[in-house]
Amino acid sequence: MTDNNLTDLPVAVTSVIGVSQYLQIATFDVENSYAYNTLAATENANPLFWDDAVAQELTSGRILPPTTLSLWMRPHYWEPGAEGEQVALQVHFDLKKIFELPEAVMTDNTIIFYEPVRAGDRISNSQVLKSVSGPKTTKLGSGRFWVIDVEFKNQHGALVGIESYTGFGYRRDQEGAAS
Amino acid sequence: MTAEARLLLGQVAVGQSLPELAIDVTPTTVVLGALASRDWRPMHHDYKFATERNGVADIFLNTPNQAAWFERYVTDWAGPRARLGRMKFRMKTSVFPGHRMVFTAIVTAVSTDSAGCGWVSIDVALSVGAAEADPSSYVVASTCEVRLALPDSSTDNPWSRSGEQWVP
């Protein structure tokens, strides 16, 4: 989705392309219980995540399954003082609002894994809008694709991973309209 | 259990297939996966929202949970010493309750990088269809390119690499 035509995009979008936004620090520490939820949800028996002796030998102690990377920055569904829906990928929701596209799906996801994440870590991240496409129509509706990179670090400043999302924000076509 | 290497780099060749994995998807599969990944968005647990707002057939598997399924699939094959370096996946259609999801994969590259780390590249396909349907009618819902570090000897441990020794 690199077919940016910057003249087609509002300043609210062009001004933030390539800019690191929403530096956030997780409000809770990494914990093993979420590893168990993920392992159970996927019936994953990898002894690295279940057996202390294996974890000690390979990773000097328990680590979290690498693909749990993004969940440490996902906000609680509710917490005291929070108003409205809490969302993880704010740039994605900003774009939906700017382009007045009520629906959205993720179509592509790339994850690069660096230092393992361990229980007790406190993760932080920031988001960079990489590109926005021109108007597109798919079977879901009409809208735009965008690419957002998210960089994750631990409390020591070590890079633990980078995720790149391609999202498609869209408006469902009216009934009877071509799809 | 032991941390013994299940698979060494030298035991893998381009064109090699991974064993197939088939899982029947239920609403619990979808909801459990979404909540495990702290994804509270309603299209992953609310049937009416998914069908009436999103216009899709049912609640559907969320992105982080698909990543976790891909991780489970390749490390089932490679063992605990295998270390994920990179995953790139594309979702073509959604995975719904009632689907049987079938994971298949083929090794596309085997290499050693300049830091001496052994790597395999694997193309994984996640196909779906009705559990009772002929598997030949299944469609590919997602594809995933995986870059996975494997030990090159029984004493090698990709997890011990960091900094310039780890180039995922």
Q: Which key features would you list for this structure?
A:
heterodimer, A: 179 residues, alpha+beta, Thiol Ester Dehydrase, Chain A, 6-stranded antiparallel sheet, 4 helices, disordered C terminus, B: 168 residues, 5-stranded antiparallel sheet, 3 helices, 5 strands, 20% helix, elongated
Give a structural overview.
The complex is a heterodimer of chains A (179) and B (168). Chain A has 179 residues and is of the alpha+beta class. Chain A has a single domain (6-171), classed as Hotdog Thioesterase (Thiol Ester Dehydrase, Chain A). Chain A has helices spanning 11-14, 32-41, 52-59, 90-98, and strands at 20-25, 103-113, 124-132, 136-137, 142-153, 159-171. In chain A, a hairpin with a 5-residue loop joins strand 5 and strand 6 (159-171). The radius of gyration of chain A is 19 Å and the shape is elongated. Chain B is built from 3 helices and 5 strands, in the order E-H-H-H-E-E-E-E. Chain B has helices spanning 27-36, 47-53, 63-78; strands at residues 21-24, 83-91, 99-112, 118-130, 139-150. In chain B, strands 1-3-4-5-2 form a 5-stranded antiparallel β-sheet, covered by helices on one side. At the A-B interface, helix 2, helix 3 and strand 2 of A face helix 1, helix 3 and strand 2 of B. Strand 2 (103-113) of chain A pairs antiparallel with strand 2 of chain B.
Shape of chain A: elongated
Order of helices and strands of chain B: EHHHEEEE
Q: Give unreliable regions of chain A as ranges.
A: 175-179
* Percentage of residues in helical conformation of chain B: 10-25%
Strand content of chain A: 25-35%
Q: Report the top-level CATH class of chain A.
A: Alpha Beta
Distance N to C terminus of chain A = 20 Å
How many extended strands of chain A? 6
What is the CATH topology assignment of chain B?
Thiol Ester Dehydrase, Chain A
The structural class of chain A is alpha+beta
Chain-averaged pLDDT of chain B:
95
Q: Order the strands across the largest sheet of chain B as they lie in space.
A: 1-3-4-5-2
Task: From the alpha carbons, calculate the radius of gyration of chain B and give it in angstroms.
Answer: 18 Å
Shape of chain B: elongated
**CATH architecture annotation of chain A:** Roll
List the domain count of chain B as a whole number.
1
For the termini of chain B, the CA-CA separation is: 28 Å
- For this structure, the CATH topology of chain A is Thiol Ester Dehydrase, Chain A
